[in-house]
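Researcher: Sequence recovery benchmark, item below. Answer with residues only.
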C-alpha cells in the first residue's frame, strides 16, 4: 500500500484526525518505534523520532566543503583573536568555517563565554565573507 503524504489539516497521513490520533497512540505504545506516523512532524521520515542532537540544520548548512582552507593563524590574526584563543582552537582541532553554533564543550578547552561568543561571531563573519568571494587566495 503506497504511503500517503502528510496532511496538515488532518494531522496525519491522510484519513481523519481520529485515524492520526490512533496512529499516535499506537506509536506511543511501542515506544515511538515502527512505521506509523506519530503526529510530531518527524513521522514523515518514517519510524521513531531522532533525538540525537548533533548540530542544528542552520549550522549544518553553514558547513560548506567549498569554503577555502584558511590557516588558523591567518584567521585569528584577521579577526583579532589573540594567541590564547588560537591555542584553544588548535586544541579543539577547529578549522575556519567549521559549524560551531551547537558546540557545547567550549568550556573544556578553557573558553569563557565572552571569548567563545567572539569566536562564533568571527567564524560566521568568515563564512559570510568567504561565500561572498573574499579569501579567494586560499581556494584550492
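Model:
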Amino acid at each position: 500500500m503506497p504511503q500517503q503524504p502528510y496532511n496538515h489539516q488532518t494531522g496525519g497521513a491522510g484519513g481523519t484526525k481520529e485515524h492520526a490520533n490512533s496512529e499516535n497512540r499506537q506509536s506511543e505504545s511501542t515506544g515511538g518505534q515502527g512505521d506509523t506516523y506519530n503526529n510530531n512532524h518527524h513521522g514523515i521520515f518514517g519510524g521513531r523520532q531522532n533525538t540525537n542532537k548533533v548540530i542544528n540544520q542552520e549550522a549544518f548548512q553553514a558547513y560548506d566543503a567549498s569554503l577555502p582552507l584558511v590557516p588558523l593563524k591567518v584567521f585569528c590574526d584577521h579577526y583579532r583573536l589573540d594567541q590564547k584563543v588560537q591555542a584553544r582552537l588548535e586544541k579543539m582541532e577547529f578549522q575556519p568555517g567549521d559549524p560551531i553554533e551547537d558546540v557545547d564543550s567550549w568550556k573544556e578547552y578553557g573558553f569563557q563565554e565572552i571569548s567563545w561568543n567572539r569566536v562564533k561571531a568571527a567564524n560566521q563573519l568568515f563564512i559570510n565573507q568567504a561565500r561572498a568571494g573574499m579569501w579567494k587566495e586560499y581556494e584550492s
